[in-house]
Amino acid sequence: MKIQKIYSYLSYPSKHEEQQPEIGGATIPHKGRLYEMLKDIFDKSDKECNIPICFTPDANGAQNNACRNEIIALINSSGITAGRKIAERLQSVTTGKSGMGLLFLIVAQEEKTHKIMISRFPADQGIMAEQNSKTLKVEFVEQVFLKNANAYKSAVYKGASTAADFWLGDAVDKQTNHGIKDVANYWIREFLLSDFKTTSKAGTKRLAIALKDAITNTDDLGVKHELTSSAILARNMGGKNTSIAEFYNQFHLSDNAKAVINKQLKSMRLAGDKFQFDIDEFTKHISYKTLEIDNGAILTAPVDKFDKCFKEQGAENSRVRTFQTSGRVINEKLKKSK
Q1: pLDDT tens per residue, the chain (338 residues)?
Q2: Dihedral of alpha carbons 214, 289, 291, 205, sign
Q3: Residue partners of 9: CB distance under 8 A and separation at least 6
Q4: Which residues of 173-204 are buried (b: 16+ CB within 10 A; e: fewer)?
Q5: Counting beta carbons within 10 angstroms of the beta carbon of residue 268, is it exposed (0 to 12), middle (13 to 18) or buried (19 or more)?
Q6: Nearest C-alpha neighbor of 74 from the set 112, 111, 107
Q7: What's the number of CA atoms in the CB half-sphere (13 Å) around residue 227?
Q8: How many Cβ atoms from other residues are within 10 Å of residue 9's Cβ?
Q9: Cys bridge to 136: 1, 26, 95, 254, which one at CB 3.0-4.6 A?
Q10: Close Cβ partners of 73 (under 8 Å, ≥ 6 residues apart)
Q11: Helix (H) or strand (E) run with residue 301 in it
Q12: Secondary structure (DSSP) of 246-260
């Protein structure tokens, strides 16, 4: 797809500032090392941006989104002033933790299809005086960009109709290894006014059911125990941004355990879908009662069977409580709560 315009802006960490600083901007020429490197990132963006996102409706539930409106305005006008509105939005949600940023807006078109890539690169505090008001030197932009060319956040949108398209996009965060965490809250939710395409409830339900079905459908007691333990520990994940693939890594699941869960998914692609873990949704499908004892033991059973499984001896108000259980090990199950 042919690039039409590339704009760059220097934004400051000004989330809590009443008076927002002026934002300097520059139009990047279609030649030179800076252009070639940006073009390479743009050309790779369709594969590299692998987190599906979507713009959220406004506070009243109407099919309207302020960030999307600014993107449409940039596509329609292809002007540096329209792009500055997007840079101002980024600046207004940027904290000192994220620091200064160099924002690039790349607008391209092929026949009736438009594509826009929004990318943010970290900048250094020491170069703040290099810009003058609303202008920005291309030489300065190149100096900052080349220093941080491998650390960036991006989002890509494509469509033919500015009236009906551009509600869905894809994002990536290549700064996660550079000390900047939680791309969802800062980049996706606050700046882009978007969310993961897979909703919190849908993603959590998919994980819970896959875990429950995996334990039911395997005869390997070791795998059953491994998956049961991960389901119990998952209760500490409330509000965490994750995916089924990341769930595997967080709890160090074995290849056998991963394979059993994967068999429960309709498509392997679903394992990579990002979502925010919803503990309430998870417990609708998997519900256990768990007691942790200071000797290191963990007592776990379905809520409605816990008291039958573990007989308690001694007074309940005693600091030391004794539990007893007996039976033949035949299976491990995750039960959907009633």
Answers
A1: 899 999 999 888 999 888 888 888 889 999 998 899 999 999 999 999 988 999 998 877 678 899 999 999 999 987 899 999 999 999 999 998 888 889 999 999 999 999 999 999 988 655 444 555 566 778 778 777 777 778 889 999 999 988 889 999 999 888 764 433 455 688 999 999 998 888 889 999 999 999 989 988 998 988 988 988 888 888 888 888 889 999 999 999 999 999 999 999 988 888 988 888 998 899 888 876 667 788 888 888 875 577 788 888 766 566 788 888 988 877 777 766 54
A2: positive
A3: 23, 24, 25, 26, 83, 84, 87, 102, 103, 105, 136
A4: bbbeeeebeebbebbbbbbbbbbbbbebeebb
A5: exposed
A6: 107
A7: 33
A8: 26
A9: 26
A10: 82, 85
A11: strand 298-302
A12: HHHHHTT--HHHHHH
Question: Cα 192 to the chain's mean position, in Å?
Answer: 12
> How many C-beta atoms surround the C-beta of residue 30 within 10 A?
14
Amino acid at 197: K
> Which residues neighbour 325 within 8 Å (Cβ) at sequence distance 6 or greater?
299, 309, 310, 311
Q: What six digits make up the tokens of 108?
A: 């391209």
Contact 58, 64 (CB under 8 A): yes
DSSP string, 320-332: S-EEE--------
Inter-residue contact 149 to 174 (CB < 8 Å): no
Dihedral of the CA atoms 110, 114, 115, 118 (nearest 10)? 140
